[in-house]
Amino acid sequence: MLHERNWFAFILLLRLIATVCSQVFPSLPADGNPKESSPFINSSMASDMEKSQQYDGKNMALFEDEMDTSPMVASLLSSLANYSNLPTGSKEHEEAPQLGTLMGVYLPCIQNIFGVILFLRMTWMVGIGGVLGSFIIVFMCCSTTMLTAISMSAIATNGVVPAGGSYYMISRSLGPEFGGAVGICFYLGTTFAGAMYILGCIEILLIYIVPQAAIFKMEGLEGPEAEAALLNNMRVYGSLVLGLMALVVFVGVKYVNKLALLFLACVIFSILAVYAGVIKTAIDPPVFPVCILGNRTLLTKAYDVCAKTVELDNDTVPSQLWRTFCDSDALNATCDEYFSNNNVTEIQGIPGVTSGILNLFGYYLEKGVILEKRGLASVADEEGPSPTSNRYVMSDITSFFTLLVGIYFPSVTGIMAGSNRSGDLRDAQKSIPIGTIAAISTTSIVYMSSVILFGACIEGVVLRDKFGEGVNGNLVIGTLAWPSPWVIVIGSFFSTCGAGLQSLTGAPRLLQAISRDGIIPFLRVFGHGKANGEPTWALLLTAGICEIGIIIASLDAVAPILSMFFLMCYMFVNLACALQTLLRTPNWRPRFKFYHWALSFLGMTLCLSLMFICSWHYAIIAMGIATCIYKYIEFCGAEKEWGDGIRGISLSAARFALMRLEEGPPHTKNWRPQILVLVSVDAEQNVEQPRILSLTNQLKAGKGLTIVGTNVVGTFLNNYADAQRADQSLRRLMETERVKGFSQVVISSNLRDGTSHLVQVGGLGGLKHNTILVSWPQNWKHPDSHLRLKDFVEVVRETTIASLALLVPKNIASYPSNGERFTEGHIDVWWIVHDGGMLMLLPFLLRQHKVWRKCKMRIFTVAQMDDNSIQMKKDLITFLYHLRIDAAVEVVEMVSDVSAYTYEKTLVMEQRTLILKQMHLTKNEKERENSAPTGHMSHNTPGGGTASPDCEVQRTWTDKGGAKDQSQASAGKPEAGKDLFNMKPNQFNLRRMHTALRLNEVILKKSKEAKLVLLNMPGPPKNRMGDENYMEFLEVLTEGLNRVLLVRGGGREVITIYS
């Protein structure tokens, strides 16, 4: 007993050491990139000894044989409890504390949602769009993000979400193609968001804090010149700030995280200052006078006092405003007509919340239009104001509703901040839904209330004054704040700096996650970084793309760009949730229950609508970028299987389509060859004749069904590994030859049964093959190839019984590869008998491929002695015209007399057939022959009494009476060998040999130089004794031709003259 306890303690000690080692030295794959880990089956890396010891003393001996694949429940639960969803990354990230809902989700979302648009463009949007229009915009955008958050919450709570957030959710829900495309779009959106925040930071700095710091001076400049100087200043300072921020992020992300609380505090205090200012306006409105000439808003720098003249020592003297509009200081000077005809009025810029103003309706302006106050009488200027006048406050851009949507939407983005931190959360499945939805609710209330309060507190001309030029250059929202406008100015400056740093921190990590997944090959270099995992190369690329936004230099132009990318990302989040819900996949079991596919579909529709509302051309460009990335990943990216919803759609659509196909056979107009390619493999499970797949590709061009099948001789239990190798070999060859289809390998006891099984069970439901493609058996006359000969002829018989078309390429090694091109030549069709139109259709399909495109088509048909050759040619030309097939036509007449060479060749064929038959007789067959009566032979009769299959050697592949002429030549007789050279050829064999020889003569004469010859393939012999003769006839028929494609129709029309 003591010994058993010591042994058990020793086992526990080993397991403890193994657990500690696995935690201290985590395993990585060979490429050094972290992969998705799993605590489930086949994830244990323990040694065989440790695995064998897991069952000792645990009463589990019954399951010891399955220990490699099926862990014990206790081991599984232990692995789940210790499972970490953190990828191998930066050390700072791994050492981060586990955060709750407030600090991990709610506050980061608040910080990312509130940003530069709220402080710099919100008041202008209310002034331009009116309270009603602005409220509609805010409501649409907030509803979109709320619906997206609901969908995101369902996805995030459907299992463990590793660090990677939104990209991980989309890629694992919609597959690598959609995941990569949307991930790149989300990355570009985050990068351009960084550019937008930096531009907002510079705008605050140069316009409201230190205008004197401008490198390109704007004093004295008007119109386009002033605008160009401002943009150049934005470019210079923006590039400097971008470089500084990138340096901070490169030095260490921990500094950014430490400053995050400071930036968040700035945002919260700024918003509280605005609400405090609104409350103060009800009690004591602030004094911010606005000077109005007639109904036009004047620039603050254009006057010192809001009057034309002032009283000074009982004397009336002109004011600065007078000198601005008149040519001299004299009271009788010549002044601007509008100045002379209108009075100067001073109004209160912020009348307060109790003043009764509403600014309910919009006031959209053209670029260069003077801001005018509604309701004030004025005498219009007949000539109109000068477009370059620097006396009035003017609109800097043409405004319209859709522009406002594009500019505003970035202010509601940032809802993914919580899910992006999923690796740091204590309980991500609980924190992400609650924190995200609470943050969106809070920010939506703030935005909607701000629209109403701004419209109720601030005068319309001040709201429309984007840069505060009429209120002494103050930030408009700052004029409302309490205790000072500087609270908003400083707070918004630090807020934009912090948001820019967060974007430059998050975007490279998102790109690194995409790169490490390996789905976009050319991005793999950006998966590398510093020793601690920091994405250095990704940071450089992010800074470069961000510089593009800085060069644009206009906040109003950059905002719609990033709106496109964020909207596309949100659209696919909603799509992923809707698909998973509708498909009802077994793994779709989110803990968050307050979702519905209709809500997700509504959110997806809103996202798509807002994309085109914001900017239809930006929307098309963004979708084009996503489409290009999707197709690139589809063709060149790594193959990933993540159990995504798109695969679920494919399965559902495939099932629906298969059920529809079961309703009936396809119409002739829809018929196309659905090919089953029968190939053989060698001892190493490699395809023996790979060129047959080149022909398949040229026939199919990626359309319809293609199944490549082969047979492995053996038993399923013993040869399953060989079948897997053969399947991999088929897949590799199909990929090399670009054959789009399926591979199928069967294991059977012999070649014949395996081929028969492939012909019978290939396909599924209504999606089954209708054509068999099998190569001509080489060296079929050799005794060692007897089984392949029999198998080939049996395939011909089976296709005939099953009404399948048959294609047999002869000399397949001489067929062109997919890389070859025929610049000239002919495809010759020898139309002997009507086969449903296969001979007409196949050249047309071949000429669709670039290998055969330059070849011309010729059709030859054979006329009998009593046929009218001229009329046949006319009828054939008419038929081809109705078929819309361009081809040259020729009618060939054949001589009917039988030559001595034909007689001799038939005799040699029958002698060889008899010898081969005797060579393949088994001992049992000889015994049956010796015991059989030798007096006469019986034939198959409907009533029974069938003869032995070995009794009638000379009987050919017909049931005609002529076969009886040679019934006396039996292989079972001992004297058969003596009479071998005294026999006469069978008349039916003679006639068929004559046909084969004559046809071969005319084909060689007409088509010797053709690139490909297609001709009818005769039917198989009904009596298996004539297999060798049948093969000989085909050999004679095609002798001397380089490339021959024997075609046998399936018994139905495959081409029609009707539309």
Automatic annotation (TrEMBL):
One annotated GO molecular function is: potassium:chloride symporter activity
Q: Which domain of life is it from?
A: Eukaryota
Q: Name one GO cellular component term.
A: synapse
TM ranges: 99-120, 132-155, 167-188, 195-216, 236-253, 260-279, 397-417, 437-463, 537-555, 561-582, 594-619
Q: What is this protein called?
A: Solute carrier family 12 member 5b
**Signal peptide span:** 1-22
The residues covered by the Amino acid permease/ SLC12A domain are 105-278, 393-676
Q: Where in the cell is it found?
A: Cell membrane
Q: Where is the composition biased (Polar residues)?
A: 931-941
- What kind of membrane protein is this, topologically? Multi-pass membrane protein
Catalyzed reactions per annotation: K(+)(in) + chloride(in) = K(+)(out) + chloride(out)
Which keywords does this chain's UniProt record carry? Answer: Cell membrane, Chloride, Glycoprotein, Ion transport, Membrane, Phosphoprotein, Potassium, Potassium transport, Signal, Symport, Transmembrane, Transmembrane helix, Transport
Q: Lineage of the source organism?
A: Eukaryota, Metazoa, Chordata, Craniata, Vertebrata
